[in-house]
Amino acid sequence: MKKIAKTSHSKLEIKKSTFIAYLCEFKEYKKLLQELKKEHPKAVHFVYAYRYLNDNKQIVEDKSDDNEPKNSAGLPCLNVLRGAELIDTAAVVLRYFGGIKLGVGGLIRAYSSALNLAIQEAEFVNFELKESISLKIKIKDFNKFKHTCLKNDINFNSTFCEEEVFISLNLNEKEKEVLKQYLS
Predict the structure, then answer these.
(1) Gene3D superfamilies, per this entry (predicted)?
(2) Closest listed residue to residue 91, CA positions, set 35, 183, 28
(3) Is there a contact between 164 and 139 (Cβ–Cβ < 8 Å)?
(4) Which is nearest to 157 in space by CA: 172, 175, 145?
(5) What CA–CA distance (Å, rounded) separates 7 from 58?
(6) What is the pTM of this model?
(7) What span, in angstroms and rounded, lies between the C-alpha atoms of 24 and 122?
(8) Rounded-to-integer distance, Cα 51 and Cα 60, Å
(9) Judging by beta carbons within 10 Å of its beta carbon (0-12, 13-18, 19+), is residue 114 exposed, middle or buried?
């Protein structure tokens, strides 16, 4: 699986209707949706679909047709995300109506094509499942811990409290192995 590296968009015109598709990280999609509604007040539909992994490592998906005929917009977008094996990614496709009705089949093709175009132009990174870990170490051991993390490009947050340091990390499998070796 992969996820979007940075927000990307594309534009497609079909029978005088303009479709603008955006791809972003899941955590940014609500903000993006609000911004797009302000930037494009004359757009008629703001369709979205997203996929992310919840805390139980289950894929959560949702979609909205935004008053297009049922399953003619949101579901095709969700299917495009599934087909591209994207996770932690959201799609927002807005439509400026051009006066010509496309029919359900035409809408499915239009929304899918607009999103596929955005995917072709986007940059992706491999998705890595990360686990949140918290630990406590003595202040005297902190510099060694910090050096190990910096050497292995591991990000962490630390809070100092008298003689101890509370540390929180989000680690993939490889980083967990490095940390296990450090703690041994």
Answers:
(1) Impact, N-terminal domain
(2) 28
(3) yes
(4) 145
(5) 24
(6) 0.75
(7) 10
(8) 6
(9) buried
In terms of domains, do 41 and 109 share one? yes
Confidence of residue 19 (pLDDT cuts 50, 70, 90): very high
Q: Residue 97 corresponds to which tokens in the numbers above?
A: 């109506």
Number of domains in the chain: 2
* Residues of the chain above pLDDT 70, percent: 100
The string of pLDDT tens digits covering residues 51-85 is 999 878 899 999 999 999 999 999 999 999 999 99
CA distance 107 to 37: 20
Does 30 share its domain with 117?
yes
Residues in the chain: 184
**Which of 118, 127, 48 minimizes the C-alpha distance to 88?**
127
49 shares a domain with 107: yes
Pair 75, 135 in one domain: no
**How far is Cα 17 from Cα 19, in angstroms, rounded to an integer?**
7
Q: How far apart are CA 59 and CA 51, in angstroms?
A: 7
Is the dihedral angle over the CA atoms 24, 30, 36, 42 positive or is it negative? positive
How far apart are the C-alpha atoms of 47 and 63, rounded to whole Å? 8
Cα–Cα nearest to 122, from 152, 90, 170: 90
Q: Which domain holds residue 7?
A: 2-126
Domain CATH code at residue 144: 3.30.70.240
The count of C-alpha atoms lying within 13 angstroms of the C-alpha of 43, restricted to the half-sphere facing its C-beta, is 21
